[in-house]
Amino acid sequence: MSAPRRQGARESRVSARGALLSRWQQHVQTAADSLEKLRRSPGNALMTIAVIGIALLLPCALFVSVDNLSRLGGNMGGASQISVYLQQDVTDSEALEISEQLLTRRDIDAVRYISAEEAAREFAATSGLGDVIAALDSNPLPGALVITPSDVSTSLSSSLVSDLESLRGVDSVQLDLAWVERLQAFLGLARRASTGLMGILAIAVLFVVGNTIRLAIENRRAEIVVIKLVGGTNAYVARPFLYTGAYYGFAGGVFAWTLLAAILLALGGPATELLRLYGSEYSIRGLGATGSLLLLVGSTLLGWLGAWMSVRQHLSAIEPR
Amino acid sequence: MIKFDNVSKRYPGGHQALDQVNFELNAGEMAFLTGRSGAGKSTLLKLIMLMEKASQGQIFVNGKNLGRMPADRIPFYRRRIGVVFQDHQLLFDRNVFENVALPLQIEGYPRHEADRRVRAALDKVGLLKKEKMMPITLSGGEQQRIGIARAVVNRPQILLADEPTGNLDPELAAEIMQLFEQFNQVGVSLLIASHDLSLITRLRHRVLTLDKGRLIRDADSGVPGAAGQEH
Predict the structure, then answer these.
(1) Residue B136 has what pLDDT?
(2) B chain contacts of residue A21, beta-carbon cutoff 8 Å
C-alpha cells in the first residue's frame, strides 16, 4: 500500500492557528535577520548609534542636573521659614490662638511662637546689646510666629503669604530666604528648557534614524522589488526596516545611558566632596531605575517611529517596473 | 483563466505598447507569446502582473477585473501567479533554498511545511543538491531553474514567463521548456513570452503573435508561416 497522500495541505493554504504561529515565526525571523544585518556592518551602525546616543545624552544630563539641584534645594528648603511679626497689643493667648488656627492649614508644617519677652532675651543674648534692652522702659520687640511651610516652592507661589498678611493682629510678614525663591525660579526655567531640548533632540533622533533607514531602503531596492513581485505586502517589506529603526533607537539609548553613568561616576565623587564642605550630606543621583527604563523605552520608540516615517515616505515609491 | 478584452496600453510619452488586444487563455492551457523585441510581449505580462495598468479595455484573471483591484489586494493577487524572468530576479545575498522559500515566507507558511515545499520544488528542477549554494556560483541555466522553482513553490494556477530561455543555449532551453510542459500536465496554465521561434514550433502549443502592439495571429499549434521559413 502506498503512503497516504496529504490532500489537506495542498488545498487549504494556511490555517488560522498556523497563520498566527507562522506570523510569530516570521517576526522572530525578521527581527533576527535585521539584527544580523546590523552586526555585519558595525561601522555604519555605530556612527548612527553614537549620534543618537549623544542627542539623547544632552537632555538626560540636563534632566539629571535639574533633578539633583531641586532635591538639593528641597533639602535646604527645610531651613526656609516665614517670620510673621505680630502687633504690639497681641497677647500671648491671642498669639497661640492664631498659631493653632494656622496649624490646621495643609501648606504649613510647623508654627513656633516667640513671645516679645523671649525675643528680647534672645536678642540680648545673641547681639550683646543686653544692656541697651534693659535700659529701655518697655520691650520694643514684637511677638512673632515662625512658620515652616510644608513645601517651599508652592508656598511661595500660593496665597500663603497674602493670607498671613491679612490675618488679624499681624503687623508684617517677612520671607527670609529670597534665594530659595530664585533657585525655584531658576529650576523651573531649567526644567522647561530641558523639556524643550528633549523635544527638539527627539525630532533630531527621528531624522537621524529616518535618514539611515532611507539609505538602507535605497541599498535594498532590488530586493524590495523582487519581494513585491512575489506578493510581499508593504507591511512585510517594511518590517525589517522598522526592527532596524527600533534597534538603532535602543542602542542609542544604551549609549546615552552609559555615557551619562560614566559622567556621573566621574563627577559624583568631587561633587559629594564639595557638598560635604558646605555641610550637606547630599549625594548625586542618576536617572534611577524608572528614568533608565523610560530612556530605553523612549529611545526604542523614537527609533521605530523614525524608521516608520522613512518607510512610509520611501517604500511605496519602489514598485516593480 | 486570463481574458484580454480590447486592451490597449500607452506609456506616458506616447509609446503605444499594446493596441486593442483580445484573447482568452483557458484553465490548463499552455500558450506562447511571440513577436519581435518591442512588440509588446513584456508589457502584456506586466499588465497581468499588475506592474502596469491598462490604458483602455479590461483584463480578467480568474474572473476578477484587474482594473478594479484595490492596491492593497495586489500582493495577495500576485501570490496566485508564478512569474519567471529572463534575468531571474534572484536575491544574491541569500542561498538557493532561501530564494525559493521567499514566496512561502511572505505568505507565512509554517517552517516545516515551507521546507517540504521548497525541497519538492528544488527536486522538480533538479537542484535539490545545491540548496545551500549561493546563486552567483551557479550557471545561467541553474539560476533560471531557481527562478522557476521559486515561481512554482506556492503552487500557482497560472505561470507566466518572460523570455525564460533568452540567455540559454538550445539544449538548456529545451530542458526548461520540458519543465514547463510538465507543470502544464498537472493543470497549471502557462503563458510564455519568447522570440525563439524554432523552439516554439517544435512544441505544439497555442501561439499568440504580437506585432507593434497588435495581436496579429492566434494559431492553435505551431507557427506555420513565420517558422516555416526557418526550417
Answers:
(1) 92
(2) 110
Fold of B2-80+156-230: Rossmann fold (3.40.50)
Interface of B to A at Cβ within 8 Å reads 49, 51-52, 72, 75-79, 83, 89-91, 93, 102-103, 105-111, 113, 150, 155
For residue B16, the tally of other CB atoms under 10 A from its CB is: 15
Number of C-beta neighbours around residue B142 at 10 A: 19
A320 pLDDT more than 50: yes
B91–chain A nearest CA distance, Å: 6
Specify burial of residue B186 (Cβ count, 10 A radius: 0-12, 13-18, 19+).
exposed
Enumerate the domain spans of chain A.
28-75+183-314, 81-176
CB contact under 8 A, A29 and B72: no
Maximum distance among all Cα pairs of chain A, rounded to whole angstroms: 129
> Structural domain boundaries of chain B?
2-80+156-230, 86-142
Higher pLDDT, A256 or A42: A256
Contact across the interface for A26 and B105, Cβ inside 8 Å: yes
pLDDT at B225 over 70: no
Residues A215, A217, A220, A222: is their CA dihedral positive or negative? negative
Contact A319 B51 (CB under 8 A): yes
**Each residue's pLDDT tens digit, B122-139:** 998 889 999 999 999 998
Chain centre to alpha carbon of residue A68: 11
* The CATH number of the domain covering residues in A81-176: 3.30.70.3040
Examine the pLDDT at A192 and tell me if it is beyond 80: yes
What pLDDT, on the 0 to 100 scale, is given for residue B121? 93
> Residues A205-222: pLDDT tens digits?
999 999 999 998 998 888
